[in-house]
Amino acid sequence: MFDAIVVGSGAAGVAAARALSGTRSILVLDVGHRPPPLPDTEGTLNELRQHSPDLFHFLIGERFESLHNLHNPPVSLKLKAPLMTYILRDAATLSPHRATAFQAVMSFAAGGLANAWGAGVYRFTPSDLTDFPVTRAQLDPFYDDVGAHIGISGEDDDLFPLFGHEPVLQPPVQLSRFAADLLRGYRRRKPGLAAQGISLGRTRLAVLTRPHNNRPVYRYGNYEFFRPYDRAIYNPAFTLDELIAANRIVYEPRHLAASYREHSDHVEVISRHTETGEIQRFQGRTLILAAGAINSAKLVLQSNRDHDTRLPLLDNPMACLPLFRLNRIGQALEPSDSSLGQLNLICRHDGLVLQGSIYGGPGPLRSDLIFQLPFAIGANLSLLRRLAVATGLLMMFYPCDPVAGNDLRLAPDGVLEIRCGTKPLLPARDVLLKAMRSMGCVASAAMWQYPAMGAGIHYAGTLPMRTQPGRYQLDPAGRLSGTRRIFVADGAAFPRLPAKNLTYTIMANAARIASSIPFEAL
After folding, report:
1. What is the pLDDT of residues 225-271, one digit of tens each?
2. How many angstroms separate the CA atoms of 68 and 309, rounded?
3. Are 301 and 311 in contact (CB under 8 A)?
4. Comparing 38-47, 123-132, 209-218, 388-397, which segment has the lowest mean pLDDT?
5. pLDDT range class, residue 9, cuts 50, 70, 90
């Protein structure tokens, strides 16, 4: 019998397992897909393109994987290259779903969707934690511990009040000229922009600019869209492998948790081996669900054989705006060009706090952008060659509160029914457009893009945490209402979403929940 069984190896599962390992016997159950063998890549992607005779298998793929969005419903540009498809492998069969006006993205890879995350790490402020029965003071020690483990780069600038203090902060990632020009434009017009509620600063990233925990510094290779496991960019799979190698956890991959049963002195987890189909049972004194907000909710409904209840589902709505700097057209790519988020923008508007990330343009394939320009294909290709270094993307995230009709249900056939019945309003677009123009970017209102709900992949709120929880809700310790030994450690716990990426807070809260489980009292 294990002290704890953790289901899932994404950000939440690994943070919980790490918090418990060494003092408790921990089993991590996981499907755990891994990438195929990775090729050696010397130099930058741009250099590789110039000197390698054939990059078809690396960039496009034998099955034309990288061209997925030309003829299929679109997925994130980071999830479709040949070496990245393992992240979504088998998701449609392992967790089938029917969605209405919602684009659900699920991963069964070791490390979860953080295999392709933007690596942005931000502490929640007290106002971000509105309706969450946990204070910033309670989370801070766990932020400190997680931050020291993963390594964070950035600086304290105008965004410090929104991002908070990091005890150990590595120097920020070097800016491209596009981003540096934009930041200078902001500083020149700072008073006027502040009057509009606009602040701009460096992104806090789980990306190393100094060696840390046996991981190297970021090399500006610009492979983020094509090659996983850059050890300078934190991935929960790295911590998972460290825990396995040190014998601090027992790891059982190729296991899909199907349900659980709580007994007086233990929990039994029933799982299916994904290769043999064999049903196996594992016993632990406690169970920590960390399969992601959608799949943790599915496990709870499956275990209760509940095909009637609809659980709330949150995700940050998004709006995206292409940006151009005319003085950069035709310039050569630079060593510091990167597809990492280089700047963050905060917009305070009508009582809301919106947060955006600004990315450079050299990362994606030209085929990902070719149909977004108004000319013939040949002209668009020629233009894109010259525009790549002059192009950026503002990706704005909006807060999300529970809305009736945005929910999920487990149908009797075992398929999740996910629906988004309310289309959110996305304010401040004119303010943002004016701000970007004042900072020297060419941008047009006609170029605003609105990804489908679900495309933000910040899923949360399915099993919300409350001071006085009801059915299918959590108490402040993370315990599922009506149970003694079932805890939920992932984004399912958040009753509302601020506009920030929540991965860092998920990890801190998962560590808090795991560290506080009263094993002796169970």
Report:
1. 888 999 999 999 999 999 999 999 999 999 999 999 999 999 999 99
2. 35
3. yes
4. 38-47
5. very high
Cα gap 266→363, rounded to integer Å:
49
Q: Write the secondary structure of 450-507 as one string of H (helix), E (strand) and C (coil).
A: CCCCCCCCCCECCCCECCCCCCCCECCCCEECCCCCEEECCHHHCCCECCCCCHHHHH
Is the distance from CB of 408 to CB of 418 less than 8 angstroms?
A: yes
pLDDT number for residue 421: 83
Contact 364, 77 (CB under 8 A): yes
**Type of residue found at 252:** E
Instruction: Give CA angle at 106 (128, 450), nearest 5°.
Output: 60
Alpha carbons within 13 angstroms on the beta-carbon side of residue 30 total 30
- Nearest residue to 156 via CA among 165, 167, 168, 146: 165
Strand, coil or helix: what is 78? helix
Containing 322, the helix (H) or strand (E) segment is: strand 318-324
Q: How far apart are the first and last CA of the chain?
A: 14
Q: Which of 235, 205, 247, 282 is nearest to 107 (CA)?
A: 235
**141: CB partners within 8 A, 6+ apart:** none
Kindly compute the dihedral angle of the four CA atoms of residues 446, 447, 450, 455, in this order, to the nearest 10 degrees.
170
Region 311-325: mean pLDDT is 93
- The domain 2-521: what is its CATH number? 3.50.50.60
Contacts 24+ apart (CB under 8 A), 275-284: 280/255, 282/2, 282/5, 282/27, 282/29, 282/252, 283/1, 283/2, 283/5, 284/1, 284/2, 284/3, 284/4, 284/5, 284/27
Please, which pLDDT band fits residue 76 given cuts at 50, 70 and 90?
low
CB atoms within 10 A of CB 166: 20
What is the largest distance, in Å, between two alpha-carbon atoms of the chain?
Answer: 70
For residue range 453-507, list pLDDT tens digits in order.
Answer: 998 999 999 999 999 999 999 999 999 999 999 999 999 999 999 999 999 999 9
One-letter amino acid for residue 444 of the chain: S
Burial class (CB in 10 A: 0-12, 13-18, 19+), 265: exposed
Match 């449609």 to its residue by tokens. Answer: 92
| 33 contacts 90 by C-beta, under 8 angstroms | yes
Listed in sequence order, the DSSP H helices in 306-438 are: 377-387, 429-438
Both tokens of 54, joined, read: 């054939």
Of 54, 105, 53, 103, nearest to 84 by C-alpha is: 105
pTM exceeds cut of 0.85: yes
Sign of the torsion formed by the C-alpha atoms of 64, 67, 69 and 70: negative
Cβ neighbours for 32, distance < 8 A, ≥ 6 positions apart: 9, 108, 109, 110, 251, 253, 254
Q: At 245, which helix (H) or strand (E)?
A: helix 236-245
Residue ranges per structural domain of the chain: 2-521
136 phi and psi angles, rounded to 5 deg = -60, -40
Q: Tokens 């958040």, residue?
A: 494
